[in-house]
Amino acid sequence: MKLYHSPQAPNPERVTKFLKAKGKLDAVEIEEISIMKQEHKSEAYREVSPFSQVPALVLDDGTKITESRAICTYFEGVFPEPNLMGTDPKEKALIEMWDRRIELMLFIQFATWFRNAHPMMAPLENPQVPEAAAKAEKSARAMAKRVNAHLAENDFLACGRFSIADITLYCFTGFAGVMKWKPHEEFENIGKWMPRVVEKIG
Ligand SMILES: N[C@@H](CCC(=O)N[C@@H](CS)C(=O)NCC(=O)O)C(=O)O
């Protein structure tokens, strides 16, 4: 199987860190797609990912999977150990709850801020809308505060153990640096959580 990856981009990183946590990075062939060179908009790549987004996974039978979390779900099935998405209905629900909260309320809010505010993104986000950036920045900062409060009582985001939700938060934390935002320095509990995750996938 082949994984289409962009090393600087956070969604593909969610998949490679997930594979790393499984010890299975070598199980896939990786092809790099440069977003800055707009390779993801080429006709050839659109055959793989009609929405022109990275990552994408192509299975040996030709099946194409193009959402990072869906790709992780596939890998969780074929490489079950260590478990990263829950072992019973309660764990699965709690891990999904936190993963979706981080993705929807932090990761995507931050991406909307970045895409609408950073000059580097002007060719991809046309037009950039300052009001959208300001609103999304406020949402992302509010969510980071909530996550920090949650981590005051919890070593990991869900079920007292490392999971896909922590991987999503970890990738967001690195991504935030593009706007010179360091949530792990600004927020004490995110800062204490970080080395626990680095130990698994850093
Ligand atoms: N929901 C998708 C989002 C994928 C996505 O937005 N990928 C970004 C890179 S992090 C991308 O391909 N951007 C290209 C563009 O915006 O033109 C997923 O989770 O895989």
Automatic annotation (TrEMBL):
SUPFAM superfamilies in UniProt: GST C-terminal domain-like, Thioredoxin-like
Stored PROSITE patterns: GST_CTER, GST_NTER
**Per UniProt, which keywords does this protein have?**
Transferase
Q: Name one GO molecular function term.
A: transferase activity
Coiled coil residues, start to end: none
Keyword Transferase tagged: yes
Annotated ranges, domain GST C-terminal: 88-202
Record-annotated GST N-terminal domain positions: 1-83
Q: What is this protein called?
A: Glutathione S-transferase family protein
Lineage at the top is:
Bacteria, Pseudomonadati, Pseudomonadota, Alphaproteobacteria, Hyphomonadales
